[in-house]
Amino acid sequence: MILSFKPSVAQQKDMMIRIAEIEIIPEYLEEYKAILKEESSASVKIEPGVIVIFPMYQKENPNQIRLLEIYANREAYEAHLKTPHFQHYKSTTLKMVKSLKLIEMSAIDPETMQEIFRKIK
Amino acid sequence: MILSFKPSVAQQKDMMIRIAEIEIIPEYLEEYKAILKEESSASVKIEPGVIVIFPMYQKENPNQIRLLEIYANREAYEAHLKTPHFQHYKSTTLKMVKSLKLIEMSAIDPETMQEIFRKIK
After folding, report:
1. Chain A CB contacts of B101 below 8 Å
2. Residue A59 and residue B105: Cβ atoms within 8 Å?
């Protein structure tokens, strides 16, 4: 089930936007990416309030993972933390993570966000 | 004119994904954000090969700007650099930028990217 989410500019004010900066212990990298992939995919598919979890790694330093995360609001994020797929991700990857920084962001241009949503539909 | 872009997983292999880390000299911050907003908005609207330019700032350190940029391919990016709106952005903001890091990224899960595109439509 894919739940559609096309937020208005007003709704975007409630959104929680974050960049996660995660460094993985090299020996666990492939395993970590497989678990992360499963978790982010499930979150986007199942949770209507998870708008974007977009996992990437730095080409020149693949142990450096970056996630762009966008939640509909703080409640959607809190609910996300309680899901079985997030709990599984968190407990299995804890030992693989060398460092973790969660950086709260604000969108500079909510209208362009709308534009992007319209464009990639 | 909004040009729709719904890339297949195959097309996503050509995509250029980048995080720009930009620190702005505080006195120029508001002016910089206004110019950036204009430029990113124009790029997403006018250029079919600019899939995402999503500008953000760190809530706790607003001089720290982050951009998620996704281009259809390397050619789309090269064409973007030659547009009047990018040229205007670059020339007017040069003196405002304290530091600039362009970090090439890879998507960990192209299918979830598809999922996100479908979801926010």
Report:
1. none
2. yes
Give the Å distances, CA to CA, from A99 to A24, A94, B94, B99, B108: 7, 10, 33, 24, 19
Return the domain boundaries, chain A. 15-106
Query: Does the domain formed by A15-106 have CATH 3.30.70.100?
Result: yes
Candidate from B37, B113, B121 with C-beta closest to A108? B37
Question: Along the 121 residues of chain A, how does pLDDT read in single tens digits?
Answer: 344 455 666 667 789 999 999 999 999 999 999 999 999 999 999 999 999 999 999 999 999 999 999 999 999 999 999 999 999 999 999 999 999 999 999 999 877 776 676 666 5
Fold entry, domain B12-113: Alpha-Beta Plaits (3.30.70)
ipTM: 0.87
